[in-house]
Amino acid sequence: MSRALTRLGALLAAIALLFTSWSVTTDRRAEALESFTGYLMVHFTGEHANGQQIYFTHSDDGLHWTELNNGAPVLLSTIGTRGVRDPALVRSPDGDRYWIIATDLRIGEDTSWSDAIHRGSKSLVVWESTDLVTWSHPRLLDVAGNISGAGSAWAPEAIHNPATGDYVLYWATNTTLNDVKKHRIYYARTKDFRSITTPVLYIDRPGTQGIIDTQIVEVPGSVGGYRYYRASGDGQITVEASNSILGSWTRLGDLSHMDITGRQVEGPMWMKFNDRTEWALWLDQYSSGRGYMPVTSTNLGSTANFKTTGDYGLGGARKRHGSILNLTAAEEGRVLAKWGATTPINRIQSYNHQDRYVRHSNFDVRIDSDVSPAKDAQFRVVPGLVGTGTVSIQSVNFPGYYLRHTNFDFVLAPDDGTSVFRADATFRQVDGLASSDWSSFRSYNFPDRYIRHYAYQLRLDPITNSVARADATFRLTT
């Protein structure tokens, strides 16, 4: 009898464990399958300092967008070229894992387009998360190293393939085939974005026509007659369709009837509207510098169905090639809780020269009166880049740039992700040394020194007398 009870108990425990495991998996899948409530765009912003990093922008309706994290980068690449472009955001089918994959490329400084095309990185930069807000350190994934003569690995995308239970990872590589050197799309399969199968040629256009930007969207219900659609920048924006990611594709047409060609637009991003059977194909108007524009369709089966719309807004900063993820309420709540709050804009007023305010000019920092342009004297006092109970001082007109000391002099500089920079740009806001109604800012990594002005220039100094205490006292004003 006792043995029977023991076996019964073990059986019940096993069933309970199985049910618990099934419940956790079901809960994760349920989150991924919940109705979508918002949109997250991941992108870069351009060739300026910190423009080639990871930015997040949010929308409620898919047409009107707001920058997150006060317009500053959300993630910085500190590996490879120390810059990223063309990011793609991938969600697992269970909704329990996310990846950002991006081109390892930083144009400018010591890298030209010729360098990037012929001698560029053959790796992608990868971040991983289980919740969309806590991300791993970036890592490099070599995707083109085994492609003969490869000069680059650009514009990566990935889509889960239910036919094989893994992801099809695809990107553009510049190499020579049949005596023609150009960009073609290659693909490999992966389960974890840590290792890949041997790369295989995926898309090649006739003759010398290259192809770089390609993005695939899966369409529930096969609206338009197909399960998958892909848009590619190949001298124009070409749309193709298939019922299998790795099967044959049918060319549906292009957008030339809309006077949109690949010489004017690039970086196609698909987006399904949450509340209706309609899609937007966002296109980057790179030649004119106007940023992304949407063309929309309720039936992807023919390119003649696409139309333009003027009712959209992308916020203050220019968006460059990225991707858009439809968000569940749970995902949207986490993202907005982390990066959605907007920190107030302040000016930093001098205590002993109250007509003067901290301002940057040519990235040097001083106190001035009658600051023009006014935004040069506007800052956000945000949570410190390092340390608990600290602050950092971010520029309003240069998001992602902070006041930092170097050799005890102050400059406005972009966060480069290093521990030295972040310590130099972090302070403790304390009661003012000359008046407790005001504030002083003590250095995080040199706690015996404070921000103070001297001959109107900002410095980091020890404070030893009443003049220095007044120089090191400021007030945040709206």
From TrEMBL:
Could you name the domain of life of the organism this protein comes from? Bacteria
Mark the transmembrane ranges: none
Q: Which CDD domains match?
A: beta-trefoil_ABD_ABFB, GH43_Bt3655-like
InterPro entries reported for this sequence: AbfB_ABD, AbfB_ABD_sf, GH43_arabinanases, Glyco_hydro_beta-prop_sf
The record's section on Pfam families has:
AbfB
One of the GO biological process terms: L-arabinose metabolic process
Q: Which SUPFAM superfamilies match?
A: AbfB domain, Arabinanase/levansucrase/invertase
Domain Alpha-L-arabinofuranosidase B arabinose-binding per the UniProt entry, residue ranges: 347-475
The identity of this protein, by name, is: Alpha-L-arabinofuranosidase B arabinose-binding domain-containing protein
Name the species this protein comes from.
Saccharothrix ecbatanensis
The upper taxonomy is: Bacteria, Bacillati, Actinomycetota, Actinomycetes, Pseudonocardiales
